[in-house]
Amino acid sequence: MRALRIDNSLRPHTVSAVKEFLEFVIRQLIEFPDEMILSETPSGKTTVFRVALRQTDVGRVIGRNGQTIQAIRALLASSAARHGQRATLEIIE
Length: 93
Known about the structure:
The chain has helices at 11-29, 55-62, 67-82, and strands at 37-43, 46-52, 86-92. The chain is globular and about 35 Å long. The chain is an alpha+beta fold. It has a domain at 31-92: K homology (KH) domain (GMP Synthetase, Chain A, domain 3), CATH 3.30.300. A three-stranded mixed sheet has the order 1-2-3. The chain is 46% helix and 23% strand. Helix 1 (11-29) runs antiparallel to helix 3 (67-82).
């Protein structure tokens, strides 16, 4: 039986594609998209995305009872898992 090898050469492409997706989704939700700062910190198989927003835009991204941010995080996790990675999203106020 041969061991399954995971090819990490797709990782930079995966991170940039996920980052573009997050930027697109979040910019559509907020009132001041030009002031949004999205950064990523890779750490092994996990990438932590941090988004800095105006205080007034934070509520729009979180949504009522946190439903919007939960949906964004679920899509993010699903997209990353498809490529054998993990990703999380943090909001910085």
